[in-house]
Structure formats: C-alpha cells, structure tokens
Write a structure and sequence with these properties.
Blueprint: H1 3-15, H2 19-31, H3 35-44, H4 62-73, H5 77-87, H6 90-99, H7 113-125, H8 131-144, H9 148-159, H10 168-179, H11 184-196, H12 200-216, E1 232-233, H13 237-244, E2 247-252, E3 256-263, E4 266-270, H14 282-291, E5 296-305, H15 315-323, H16 328-334, E6 337-347, E7 350-351, H17 357-367, E8 375-377, E9 380-383, H18 386-398, E10 403-408, E11 422-425, E12 432-441, E13 450-459, E14 464-471, H19 487-494, E15 498-502, E16 505-508, E17 513-517, E18 520-523, E19 531-534, E20 537-541, H20 553-568
Parallel strand pairs: 1-11, 6-8
Antiparallel strand pairs: 2-9, 2-10, 3-4, 3-5, 5-6, 6-7, 10-11, 12-13, 12-16, 12-17, 13-14, 15-16, 17-20, 18-19
Helix pairs in contact: 2-10, 3-12, 4-6, 4-8, 5-6, 6-9, 7-8, 8-9, 10-11, 10-12, 11-12
This protein binds adenosine monophosphate.
The site of adenosine monophosphate has 13 residues, from β2.
C-alpha cells in the first residue's frame, strides 16, 4: 500500500470531529487492507510506531526536527523558526516549505507505507556515536522523498503530535465495526483485549479471524502489563454504606502503584502508567522471589518509602527512585521500601479477575509469605459501620497515608477508572494533580530557565486542558535536598514538549503531571477554566501518573463550592 492512501485517511479524520465518524472512516479503511497493512495502520493512525508500553522512544525534539527540515528543504533554521512561531505546528511548516522547496527535486516515487513505517521504527534503535547525526540524516531523507502532504504527517508522527484525534475509544469502535458488529458485546470484547494486550494491530487481526470469542479467550500474558483498576472519589462514607452495606475499607497508601508479574525467577514491575521500573527496584524483585510462593502470578500493591524508624516517607522522596537510572544500589539503601499488596489478577495459569474482591484477597494471603514492614498485605477491615470506617480513616491519616479505599466486597477486577467497585476517600483540601501546559521564561536569577508554569486541569467532556493557575513557588533555584526539583531540571523535562512560543511565553504539550498545594480556589475570568488557584506551590513531579490522571474541572468546581460553604460557617 502507498503511504499517501493513509495520508488521505488522516485528512478525513482531521476534517471530521465526530468520534462515530472517525471510527467509521478507520473501519472502512482497514476492512480493505491485508493483515500486514492493518497492523501498520492501527499503529500509525494513533500516531505511534510501537505499541504503547514497549518503552521505545523515537527521541526527536523540536530543534532536531527543525534541522532535518532545513536540511531537506534548503531553508534556513531561522525561516523555519519564524514559520513555526506563527503556525505552532512543524507539520504545517514542512508542508508549506516542501511545496516551495529550495532544494532541487529528484524524480520521485510514491512512498510505500511499509517503508515509511520501517524507517520510523529505525529511529528508536539508532545508538552509539553519531546518533544525532544518523537520526537527522534518516529524517531528512524521509522528508526529501515525501510529497508535501506526506511530509506533514511524517513529521507529526515523529514528534508524537499527529493531531487527528484518534483516542483508544475510537480504535475500539473501529475494530468492532470493521470485523465484528456494532453491539456492546463486541465493543466490550475489543476493549477487554485492549486492556490486557498493547498491540491493537494484533487485536484487529484476532477480531477479524476469530471474532468476539477469540477476543474473549485472550488471557493476560505474564510479563506484559495490563491496565490497572482505579477508583472514583467519594465525599462520604454514608453514601457508600447506604448503597452497598458491608464494605471492605483499605488504607490508601501514599506511594507508587506496582503491578508485579512473576514467572519463576523472572520478575517484572510496572507503574500505573505501565512503565517498566523493574531495574529501579532490585530490593522489591528480591522480596518477590522470597515471598511469593507460587511460580506464576500477577499481583498489585502500593510501594511506599520507609525511613529508619519504620515511618512512611512522603511520595516526593520515593519518586526519586522511580526515574533513577544510576546509583540504584545507593538509592535502595537511602530509601528503603515496603510494599502493601492489595490485589491478585493471575495465579499460575488461572486468571482470577472475575472472582469477588474478598476471594481474591484470600488467594493473595495464601500465595504470599508476609515480612513485617517489608512485604505485607494492605490493611483492611470489612464492616457496615460508618463509625468504624471513620476510625480507620483517621488511623490512616495519622500514619501519614492518604485516606481509605472503600471497595465493594463482591466487585470484580475491572480495568480503568470510574468502573464502579472501588471508591476513594481522601481529605477534601488535598493536593491537586495538574498538567503543566505552558510556561514563562524566567528573568533575573531564573534567566535561561522556565521560571513560572501554567497549570491545566482536565475537561473530561472534551479531553482538553484548561488553565487554572500559574506556579512559581516550590520549584528550587538550587538543590539543597535530594528530592528538590529545580527550575533547570523542570525546564529540561519540558523543553522537548514545547509546542509554540510567543513573547517569552511557551505553550507546552500536556504530558508532565505535578502535585500542587494551594491556599484557596478563586473564581477568575482570566483563566479558561474560570478558576484560579491562589498561591499554588509545587509539591512533586508525578512521573508515575499520566495526563488522564489529572484532576478535572468538575473537581475544582466541587472544591470551590465546599470551600465557600466552610467559609460561610
Ligand atoms: P489516585 O492516585 O488518587 O487516583 O488513587 C489511586 C491510587 O491509589 C492507585 O493507583 C494506587 O497506586 C493507590 N493505592 C493506595 N492504596 C491502595 C489500595 N489499598 N487499593 C488500591 N489502590 C491503592
């Protein structure tokens, strides 16, 4: 197949904002393709070249892309920067510049889909000396041999910013429409497969060949992460007890979610974003080998940092271990951990997701040998007494944990958020998790770094991020403690995510999540969300969370309301 055929689909997708229509466009397209092309299209239509969670990065920042465009079009970097400033999209820039390219044109053949895909994949595997140069050459060759429209989407794909609006829900509906039917059962079967298997191309082929039953029969593969179950926030215990009666209340530990896969001596540890952090936690790997009594399993728990007195450390301290790629043994000594296990998904060859919560917990107890303060099962009480739960809640807060999880005792393990079954109870004025969506370049002591950061909350309806505050406090000029985050560090993390720049202010692709403390929420016409956080302060980088975990505008509205009520008291 020619790449231009996919480009036509991209254009249609861009033109049609309706999710139903987008799913139809993709379904009609993949129905006509060979199995091999379906696999490629399923990936490229999402703007990726590897299934998510494989951990491969193309590693191309804006600056390098500008160089590649310059090399292949003959335009000066300055011209490219100028164009970029006005359009904010290097895809559009390359389209425009290749149309009027200064470089002489060779007689060109149309690009083959498979060829483009292979070249894009290669970018992730270029290593060693001269990596940047080799990547630059590969990209500029690709752009040189592309038509303007093709170049536009090649560039956007490499930058991870395809802008055709195909989220996972659309992929699910497209696969169901193309190879199954439009029923809820079909969509659920595809969704189930997508939750346990990251390669959606492969899922499309299974749907095509083996239908709904083929998908339903798919099983979690040990070693390969699956989407985690999450909870919804509730405001009162009574609300839950009235609805469900007896409930399992568990400590909500303040740490990192760990999904642990074990197959004999092989252990894998994944975060809730399904990032592989096995290397960072050799101490946990050792504990798993010692304390898990079965050969194969998938279990989940919360890892917390524990100080020398056995007291939990704040998440900021533990977070240093999540990203750490060197001096790991030193970190193991400095920040010892404890895991609190709360679920089991697979035991030996049996998937136990559909068993009720309390039964899963029983299995967990049977397969684990606990070591106090190191490898333990999460604290839990089962009761229908609101008073008892409140006492337990206080105990959790007093021992520096976040609150409670209230879990329905018959609930199955269901992937995703807001799936029912788990409810979290946290103090109301807790910190907010927000995305950094912009920044201002610093002045004075902060010259050369981003000096203040624009915070965004999520609009659940549109998936967009709305400004809700500007933060400059809490980020440090110099590191005085290990867990301090400096302006320099944050700038380095954010720089590759810059989308556009104007008058010292940059727009940043929402990817980085931070926990933010604040004094109060105010109404504000200056921000798109209609609210502003007063005196927001940086608490920690939440590298374990993705932008889907960012607090919503609804949550901010709610917090504003109850804050007003408590002021009026
Ligand atoms: P939140 O980060 O507020 O969305 O809360 C969800 C997170 O709480 C999960 O991803 C876990 O990392 C964490 N957590 C802590 N304790 C528990 C528990 N007992 N059960 C489930 N999740 C827990």
């Amino acid at each position: 197949m020619k790449y231009i055929e996919l480009v036509k689909i991209y254009e249609e997708l861009e033109k049609n904002p309706s999710k139903i229509k987008k799913a139809e466009i993709i379904a009609d397209f993949i129905k006509k393709q060979t199995d091999k092309d379906i696999q490629i299209v399923m990936m490229l239509v999402q703007g990726i070249v590897f299934p998510k969670f494989y951990g491969y990065e193309l590693g191309i920042a804006l600056q390098m892309m500008m160089k590649a465009i310059s090399k292949s079009t003959g335009y000066d970097i300055k011209d490219i920067e100028e164009e970029f400033k006005s359009s904010g999209d290097l895809g559009n820039v390359v389209e425009k510049l290749t149309e009027s390219r200064k470089q002489s044109l060779l007689v060109k053949k149309e690009l083959e889909l498979e060829n483009v895909f292979d070249n894009l994949k290669q970018l992730a595997f270029i290593e060693g000396s001269g990596t940047q140069e080799k990547k630059l050459n590969l990209i500029s060759e690709l752009i040189s041999s592309a038509s303007p429209k093709e170049a536009k989407y090649v560039v956007r794909t490499i930058l991870g910013d395809l802008r055709v609006g195909v989220a996972e829900g659309i992929i699910r509906d497209a696969i169901a429409k193309a190879f199954l039917d439009d029923s809820k059962d079909a969509k659920d079967a595809v969704e189930y497969a997508m939750n346990i298997y990251p390669d959606f191309g492969e899922i499309a082929i299974i749907a095509k060949k083996n239908g709904i039953n083929g998908l339903k029969k798919m099983k979690i593969k040990i070693g390969q992460p699956v989407q985690v179950m999450l909870g919804e926030k509730v405001e009162s215990v009574d609300e839950i007890i009235q609805k469900f009666g007896k409930i399992a209340a568990e400590f909500k530990y303040d740490g990192m979610r760990a999904q642990i896969h074990k197959d004999g001596e092989k252990i894998w540890i994944y975060t809730r974003r399904l990032e592989n952090v096995t290397k960072q936690f050799p101490d946990l790997v050792k504990l798993c080998k010692e304390c898990i009594k079965v050969k194969k399993c998938v279990v989940e728990g919360e890892v917390v940092g524990i100080d020398k007195k056995g007291q939990p450390m704040p998440f900021q301290t533990l977070s240093q271990r999540i990203q750490r790629k060197y001096d790991i043994e030193k970190m193991v000594k400095e920040i010892p951990i404890q895991i609190n296990l709360f679920d089991v998904l697979v035991v030996e060859d049996e998937q136990v997701l559909d068993k009720p919560l309390l039964e899963r917990r029983k299995i967990l107890k049977e397969i684990v040998k606990e070591i106090p303060n190191k490898f333990v099962i999460a604290r839990q009480i089962v009761t229908d007494s609101a008073k008892e739960i409140e006492r337990f809640y206080k105990e959790s807060i007093d021992s520096k944990q976040e609150g409670l999880f209230l879990k329905v005792i018959e609930s199955k393990y269901v992937f995703g958020r807001r799936v029912g079954g788990w409810y979290k109870l946290k103090p109301t004025m807790e910190t907010l998790d927000l995305a950094i969506i912009g920044a201002l370049w610093g002045t004075g002591k902060r010259t050369g770094w981003m000096g203040s950061f624009i915070l965004g909350c999520r609009d659940e309806k549109t998936g967009k991020f709305l400004e809700c505050g500007m933060l400059g406090t809490g980020v440090k000029e110099k590191k005085s403690q290990e867990n301090d985050v400096t302006f320099k560090e944050l700038t380095e993390i954010l720089k590759p995510l810059v989308i556009s720049e104007k008058g010292g202010q940059v727009k940043i692709k929402p990817k980085v999540v931070i926990s933010v403390d604040y004094q109060e929420i105010q109404k504000s016409p200056n921000y798109e969300s209609g609210f502003a956080l007063r005196f927001p302060r940086f608490i920690s980088l939440r590298s374990d969370k993705s932008v889907e975990d960012v607090d919503s505008i609804e949550r901010i509205k709610y917090l504003y309301k109850i804050q007003k009520k408590s002021k009026n008291k």
